[in-house]
Amino acid sequence: MEKQVIIITGAARGIGREIAKTLAKEGHIIICNYNKSKEQAIQLKKELEKEGIKIEIFQADIMKQEKCKELVEYTLEKYKKIDGLINNAGISKTQLITEVTKQDWEEIINTNLYGAFCMCQQVSKNMIYNQKGWIINISSIWGQVGASMEVVYSISKAGMDGMTKALAKELGPSKIRVNSIAPGFINTEMNNQYTKEEIEIIKKEIPLEEIGQTEDIAKCVKWLIEDKYTTGQIISINGGWVIT
Length: 244
Ligand code: NAP
Known about the structure:
This protein is α/β, with parallel strands linked by helices. It has one domain (5-237): NAD(P)-binding Rossmann-like Domain (Rossmann fold, 3-Layer(aba) Sandwich), CATH 3.40.50. The chain has eight helices and seven strands. The chain has helices at 14-25, 38-49, 65-79, 102-130, 141-145, 151-171, 196-205, 214-226, and strands at residues 5-8, 29-34, 56-59, 84-87, 133-138, 176-183, 234-237. It has a seven-stranded parallel sheet, with helices on both faces. Strand 1 (5-8), helix 1 (14-25) and strand 2 (29-34) form a beta-alpha-beta unit. The protein is globular. The two termini are 34 Å apart. Residues 9-10, 12-16, 33-37, 61-63, 88-92, 111, 138, 140, 183, 185-186, 188-191 line the site of NADP nicotinamide-adenine-dinucleotide phosphate. Residues 9-10, 12-16, 33-37, 61-63, 88-92, 111, 138, 140, 183, 185-186, 188-191 line the site of NADP nicotinamide-adenine-dinucleotide phosphate (NAP).
């Protein structure tokens, strides 16, 4: 398969890190964005270098439009093209609607939705010029069915899925595919607030009786990259927790 230049946001930890490792091992050129997790980003780079695999790490707070621009400009200057973008960076907060402050709203929406939008806007210029490319948005089960006490998160992920569908239509004629992967409960730091007992209860609600692993998402990304005819879709990876 042709070597592709791929930007992954929030790739020092969790799902993004697993996707970065999987795609780097496939021989692609990976630009791993991180924001606060500098040590983990350096450690990932070193871990892969031991296996003879090179990746780029790039600090940028994707809430800021100018930082998204810098990330894309750096990639284009060095590699002259962008084949793929994975909007993975995201934050969540569990709270009642009555507790949500303007700052909570701005942090969640600006990271999960505006940041992803800015990244799409920046990369699509080059992809349209090249008449090829793909974007994968990591949304969430909660964007599809809504989560109690996570109203802003649910709004952000539903917005992301709306963006996926709109961009699939707008960018399709330029041969750019845009899809969402909507994970269910995946074993990462994002779910650290749950106790073992709570996780057992959640497992009982899932038909496959297991929570997901980061590898489950990375495998789907790998498949989507190789695929040529899937666009505008929200692909649920949730063990059957929600079947729409
Ligand atoms: P995680 O372990 O908490 O990682 C979140 C990642 O987002 C980190 O790499 C973090 O980077 C990055 N990030 C946050 N704010 C950022 C910003 N302003 N700029 C750049 N990067 C930023 O969570 P995860 O479970 O891997 O989640 C990855 C994605 O999957 C998220 O979009 C999440 O909503 C989605 N998802 C997760 C689950 C789940 O159950 N885990 C389920 C559905 C959807 P730094 O550490 O460098 O700041």
